[in-house]
Amino acid sequence: MSVLENWDQWKNFLGDRLHQAQQQGMSQETIGKLAEQVGDYLAAQVEPKNEQERVLADLWSVASQEEQQAIANVMVKLVQNDESQS
Fold first, then answer.
1. Which of 21, 38, 54, 77 fits a disulfide with 26 by CB distance 3.0 to 4.6 angstroms?
2. pLDDT, tens digit, for every residue of 26-61?
3. What is the set of domains in the chain, with CATH numbers?
């Protein structure tokens, strides 16, 4: 099963990647830019596999670049929040 098929697995996957990036010394700004690039890739290349991803894809498709940056940054915060509560 792909990590994209289950929302919690997807968030855990993102959390692991975020933790690795932080351990390598990446700044929050760099992490945010990478998150935006991932969002662009997913929007263009990957069909959403669950309801949450469909909502994100729909929001991404109508958002301006500034709004997409905000969505990406909010996803980073969501993963960070989940990680700190574990």
1. 21
2. 998 999 998 899 889 888 988 998 899 899 999 999
3. 3-85 (1.10.760)
